[in-house]
Design brief:
Helix content: under 10%
Number of helices: 2
Strand content: 35-45%
Shape: globular
Largest sheet: 5 strands, antiparallel
Number of strands: 36
Strand order of the largest sheet: 1-10-9-8-7
Structural class: mainly beta
Amino acid sequence: MKIKLLLAVFALGLFSACDESKENDSSNHMIAQMDIRDAVTLFIAPNSYTPTRGSENGEALFKITEDGVIKQVTFVDEQGKEITEEYMPSGITVIDNSPYFFVRFYYSTYMVNKATGNVYEAPDIGTGDAPIGVQDGDINFANEKTIKADKYGNIYYKYGSQIHKIDVSNANAIVDEGLTPQSDNISMYVVSDSGELLYRYYSNGDRFHRLRTTSGRLIPFELFGSGIGFDYLAFCGLDGNIHVFDRRALYSITFNGDDSYEINDIIVDDCNESGTSHGSCIANTVYEMGGYPYLVKLPDRYLAISSDGAVLVIDSKSDKSIITGKRYDITDGTEVAYDIINGMKISQLEYNDSYVYCCGHQRGNYCILRFNPYTFESEIMVRDNDYEIYSFVVQDDNTIFFNGLRLSDGKNILATIDNNGKVKVLEETGNTRVVLYRLQ
């Protein structure tokens, strides 16, 4: 299925008209471009969430620029004119490794180019009024989205029980296609850098796994006789291959050009004195972390972080010896035992290449804590119960944008925290809570 590109005349000198608007009945215009220039963060809020926003009803899309200016995002139609009709967004999904993000409105979904703001009419990949990317199946990690991308920027998403791919290799002919049989009731899936899939599906109450090569071949997958219904914890590793934990080891799946594949142990030094291999130790450690850990993807290493504040190195690009299976307390960098976690209860986690930022309760105090993922040194960015954070994002320069409750006067605010922990209020938001999305 081809996806319609809605180009403004002033942008590229041509346009593709749509047969019918999916938006509210009073509008005859389709959005062709969104003004996201200079935007680093997006959020959705009522038009009148502050006294300065006017008295319009409904919700609108807002952007925050790098210097902290908040502006409503304007929309342009196919003929280059600003749209004055009211459009009400209901969800945003920003996809890692993709030049596009999605904005869902109540009657349609748009795919937007992050660099140009050009808009494509996209498949209706949300569910009801829920934000795009809400996890509706099994997950591997707490911060995992169902919408993923390969190294080429192609987008993968789950539609019903089927995995679809949006091929963006030709911006003028973007194609959406189903990759898996509709009869497979798919829950979890992982995409390699090259576009191979590992997915879990259900049949007659049992769990099964399949691999899908880029040519479309489907291969039943089982780790060394582990049996029907055995769970795997999987992710795309730094080498671009799919990595799989079972309770015994950590493996890498390598695909060959002839549609065959190999399973390789990721082996390093033993991690304890009993002679247990690294794979067994780290796999058991991940499972023992409890619940779903957060996955942090850094340029040269991946971390798994438990909701109780323990960090574990699970992948490394060069120095495999740092993958020891040991867990560290993010508050002081000390090694912790498997059954003793001294740290914080994490409710939200964000990161850049320099720091990991954790929001939650640390020994009874509400805070944002950041730690260096290489030295495990940490510091508190927002001190003891000054703010209750609803949502936050962090930029490459370590500026934090957040929406939260200021406890000193009970007001909701949009604010920044600089690299030294200084809070600057951008706006008060009345009773409105918003979810922030990092765009860049």
